[in-house]
Design a protein that fits this description.
Layout: E1 2-3, E2 10-11, H1 13-18, E3 22-25, E4 28-31, H2 35-43, H3 45-54
Antiparallel strand pairs: 1-2, 3-4
Helix pairs in contact: 2-3
The structure holds zinc ion.
Zinc ion binds near residues 32 and 37.
Length: about 55
């Protein structure tokens, strides 16, 4: 499982990939629960990626 960084949901990678709900950013693939979440990430990937590293 991967985390949807936009809404925080757990996402099944093969499922998201089959629906095209993935984004590549700086060599990493991100998975989303819905087209809306993917769109938000695509508009401002930095916001979500930096939130994730700050939480660790
Ligand atoms: Zn989502």
């Amino acid at each position: 499982m991967a985390k949807d960084l936009v809404c925080g949901m757990q996402v099944n990678e093969p499922d998201a990939a089959a629906k095209g709900l993935t984004s590549a950013h700086q060599g990493h693939t991100y998975y989303f629960c819905s087209p809306g979440c993917k769109r938000q990430f695509d508009q401002n990937p930095q916001k979500y990626v930096s939130q994730q590293s700050a939480a660790r």
